[in-house]
Amino acid sequence: MPIKTKLQEIENDVIDVINTDFVYYIATEVPQRNDAQLTFESGIQKKGKVIKTCVLYVDIRNSVGLTEKHHNITMGKIYSAFTKAVLKVARHHNGHVRNIIGDRVMIVFPVKDCFTNAVDCAISINHIAQYIINNQFKNVDFKCGIGIDYGDLRTIKVGIQRNGNENAENKGLVWAGYPANIASRLTDSANKVIKETYFEVKRNPLNYLSIFGGLSLTPFSNPVPDNQPLYSNKVETVEMSAEEFANSITSYRVGELGMSGGNFISFAKKERVYDYPPILMTEAVYNGFKSNNLTRNDIVKNYWKEKAHQIKNYKGKLFGGNVHWTIN
Question: Has domain 20-191+276-321 been given CATH number 3.30.70.1230?
Fold first, then answer.
């Protein structure tokens, strides 16, 4: 088949997806690939499921650096042992593994008791990493990061039908939703020390009255005098990320800097450090877990601490800890 024909076939598939309705059924149990209510056939209504629950991601820290330092055979054994351990402990805590991508594993929990199951699963994974993997693989500084969020997860079946051994390899589930993205971002930061460069900028803010010169702001107010200065005499200090600072700076004359949003006075480049523990969870997960476990040691003794953070796209409170089991 010439490539032109194949590309036309693919374009027709894309048009079919655009023109076909998607319907989502509410689920309380975690959908699986052979679920009869999930469809990907062409020309019919696409069916998916939505489940409001906890999702957990776990990822090995510095896997590239570990591979460079240690023998490939050693790392292969570590990946194999750790992934198998995560699969087993996920099932123990009623979780369902729904994605394994390299050294990253995604676990979704049924709605019932999802907060407790997800947090307990995170504690178990952290315990395995620190006290089993590291004890058995000497001289390997093995660490993992774990992130948990809660909310609506939508899943659809994707892929194509193929005959033979390749059939299963060409099918899968896609999990879409804010919680999956945030849990993944938390995992990216967990068990890491992250340095952030930012800028403190002093400027005179814009005088918004200058925009309304000669106009009345309300039907009953006096007109704003003409010739209002563009900038206020007030000096404000604003904090900007490196990207925000770079995008706001302009230079109209050699040796002079200007900036959008105000009259530039001065700036100071600064750095702050975020030291994240191995387990991170959103406020929704922490609140749900706490309300169901008020008498547990990790709640009573405040093992989970609120953390300052700069997690992209997440504005809520963040909680985390380095919690493991005490085995008698």
Answer: yes
